[in-house]
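Q: Sequence in, structure out?
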Amino acid sequence: MELQFTAILASVALGGAVVVLVFGRWWLPLADADRRVKELADAVEALLQLRSELLKEEPAPESDQTRAWLRRVQEAQDEVASLKARHDGGQLYVFRLVQYFLSTGPVAGLAEQQLKAVRALREQGSALLETALATPQAPPPLLRQPEELELQPETRSARPYINEALRFLGDCDASLGVWGAGGVGKTTVLKQVREACGLVAPFDHVLLIAASRDCTVAKLQREVIAVLGLRDAPTEEAQAAGILSFLRDKSFLLLLDGVWERLDLERVGIPQSFGMVAGRVRKVVIASRSEAICADMGCRKKIKMECLNEEDAWSLFEANAGDEAIHRHPQIPALAKQVAAECKGLPLALVTIGRAMSSKRTPEEWADALDDLKKSQLSSAPGTDKNTLSLVKFCYDNLESDMARECFMACALWPEDHSISKDELIQCWIGLGLLPAEFADVDEAHRFARSVLSVLETARMVEQGDNHRYNMFPSDTHIRLHDVVRDAALQFAAGKWLVHAGVGLREPPREEALWRDARRVSLMHNSIEDAPAKAGGSLSEAQPETLLLQGNRALPRRMLQAIQHFTRLTYLDMEETGIVDVFPMEICCLVNLEYLNLSKNRILSLPMELSNLSGLKYLYLRDNYYIQITIPPGLISRLGKLQVLELFTGSIVSVADDYIAPVIDDLESSGARLGALGLWLDSTRDVARLARLAPGVRARSLHLRNLDGARSLPVLSAQHAAEFGGVQESIRELSVYSADVEEIVADARAPRLEVVKFGFLNKLRGVSWSHGAAPNLREVAIGACHGVAHLTWVQHLPHLESLNISGCNGMTTLLRGATDGGSAAGELVTFPRLRLLALLGLPKLEAIRKDGGECAFPELRRVQTRGCPRLRCIPMRPAASGQSKARVECDKHWWGALQWASDDVKSYFAPVLI
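A: Exactly. Output:
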């Protein structure tokens, strides 16, 4: 038995040896083919990397040699892909043997030939890359010398720095560092470069980005896509790829303000490297308090900004204090020069203190101010944080009232360098109770708040901010705090406030000392996604009165569980915090709450337990995601102190039938008074019910749909003033969607109306808008109104800032001719304040004006046009000298076919080709 078993093993071994000898010989060529194909794939990968590097240096190849090489690389890539697919096609050994022996060209041999060709292409590509790198490329000469430009008078002291920065645009350096102490004017220089560079050097795009402290890649990306008008991407990597793809073949100037540490611009998506690249100019200017940071960011050329000398300091101070204040009494000029000297040549202090002294009229007031300044000055060098803190404190103390000081302090709750919407800021002031309480309605409070803002702007405690919507240019719709001023404000509130806004937090601060005595807490615009699992730790003893969490788009439920114990809370802002479906019942435990903002979430219903908040004055639920929301009967009447209620969906498609009926019933039965009401309504009957409640209830925002099949819109008609007069008097925002309205006649006076939106009005044939009916109308949006042929009436709106027309298939011209009730032929039509013009999906639009006349847009900042194939001309007059360029977001083929009245008109626009 054992002998038989041994014989069997010997036979198996002998058979295995024969198989190895026979088939192993056949396997060798197959293994060789695998090796060759892998070598070829690695070689092609290296070739493609070389192509990428060459395109970085020469995005748009001009030489025939380079273009021919790129074509051969593409052909080689295709051939190798075909060869690899053929090689990988047979996976089983037997099939691969058959393939090998029957093939007229064995894979290994073909791979060897292709490998030689790829290696030859790599050698040629390396030579082309060396030539591109070695070829000196001089930037284009400056269009105008900086000295020829007219700059704003208040920038006279910074003129030498501005001129040097503008000359940098025409030299061979790729990066420029502007550094100096806080408040010396670095931001002013960057803003002046942005405004003037279009007259000095040609760039496709100029990006002024505030980096600020604790800056993250994501934050920089958000700023960049806002300036460029690009879309959001789900990840940082995808966003970087989108930015890189857009900027790779364009000339651009990147102005980075307030840099505190080295930033990885490549991760943001900014193309590398800077300098002159194949006829494209890429330049960057870094503004920082540290020379080392500028050097670390690659700036070989640097400008140090110093405090002003005595003569320039006096000139700047005198310009801001004013001749009337300084020369009112013979003793004041000497005192004024001493006050100016206390500013230590710091431009920010000279401006703010100069403005603060402009109201002083007697020598005694000047002498007292001088004494206060001397007492507040610390023994520190000019421009240091301690010095600027005391100077800002002096200006703060000299504001005209405690209310103005409180309003100023509230601005510091927003992130550093953040442009704050004035409407958002005023809503916050009202919610915090900083304004007098005697106003009859919210509009009066807004008007008063704007006067307070004017005081702060005049005192230079706040400055003009940028509006993303209008191409990031300074706008009277936004303000911002200088970082030095904001730092000082937070120092004034030290120990009372906890402000970590816009710093990329993933969880709330854990230090108990920060929370213990904090009365106002701002964690807005972070990425908080974690919180204590239960009440305790740093949050256990916290009792803030104000909590701002807006902009944390994925706020965890555990955060709500933690803050439900903040029983002293009177102000809670949770706009856009990712609330889904269920109303957060924890809020109903905050019995002292007076202000609640839950806008831009996904809430299905309001609970009756919300009536626990008996002191609630302001409830905002704007732009709710869902198309229906349930409101229990009796809820609104139980909120007896309610003054503002804004409650409507963000959808324009459908609303639950009669969802708002309980609200109107409550208002009628309780006799409640609301200073501002915003609602969706389905019938003119409900609008009439609201009108009968006025002036007890002021309908500030109305969103109407269906309207019982009504053919006209009576809300804006003078004929129906007796029925709707209260609404006409108080309405600020009107939207009409998905209705059978055929005609809109707006001849009733609506003095407060600012925003009008019409959408999905398929039967609408025309809009008749009387002159002066809405003198303050600033935004018009018309969408999917296919019967509308023109919008001539918009040319008579002196305050119009935004005009958005989309999906109107029947529109042929924007403005009619003289014979059709429009402007006379040859007459210039001016839109004095229009900043945004959007023309989207208008397939029959052929002209802006039917008569071909010209238009003037002196404030235009942004144009969006897509889906307008017949529109071939924008009839504009040449822009005034020094006017900033308007960005045009459009299809590259449409842009290429556009006809221009002159090169001067074309040079006014900067295209963003999509």
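The two ends are 84 Å apart (CA to CA).
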